[in-house]
Each structure stands twice: as C-alpha cells, then as structure tokens.
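One-letter codes give the sequence; the fold follows as tokens. Both lines appear below.
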Amino acid sequence: MSDYKERHENEIFTKVLKAGRRTYFFDVRETKAGDYYLTITESKKNFSENGEPTFEKHKIYLYKEDFKSFEEMFKESTDFIISQKGEDVISEKHDKDYKSRSFTIESDDEIE
C-alpha cells in the first residue's frame, strides 16, 4: 500500500478552519492498534520568488492520554490572552490606521 493511501485510509474525521493565509486541519486518525488520535496541522500559503505558491506545514500529534492536560493549558493560555489584551486583534495587518496611530501616540508621548 502506498504511503499516501495509508495516510488517508486511517483518517476518521476531519474539520478545516480557514484563517487568512493559514489553514488549520483537525484530523482524527486511527493507530495500527485501532485507537484514535488527533493531528492538528497548520498550513501557511507563501509565494516563491517566481510567484509560485508554496505551503509551509507544521503538525502536532495529540494522543488521548494528553487531551485533558492539553485542553486545560489551551484554555488557561487563551483566557490569559483575552484577559490581558481583549478580543480585538492588535496588529498592523488588521488595523489599516496602525502606523499613523502608533506615530500619533509616540508624538503625544514626546509632547508631555
């Protein structure tokens, strides 16, 4: 059996989250012993110098014995971020007025 075919035959469940240039794949797969595990793949689209699209991929394998700890740490970490910075995205990419606003803030600081 080919490696490609084997990888796809053990996929049980898949969800896809598209987020700008990134896509996240949540795949439930089956081990040789018949148990399930989760892979989370981040795929980021980039372009080479000649304009050809390329994909940079990062993958996490998560097994059942780690689900509870992973879920707790994920929740704790995301709660911390939201409590510290709120839900609004703070970045130049998401705020068209970021540069002029940051310059204004810096200018106001110098005046005081």
Notes: Helices lie at 3-9, 67-85, 98-111.
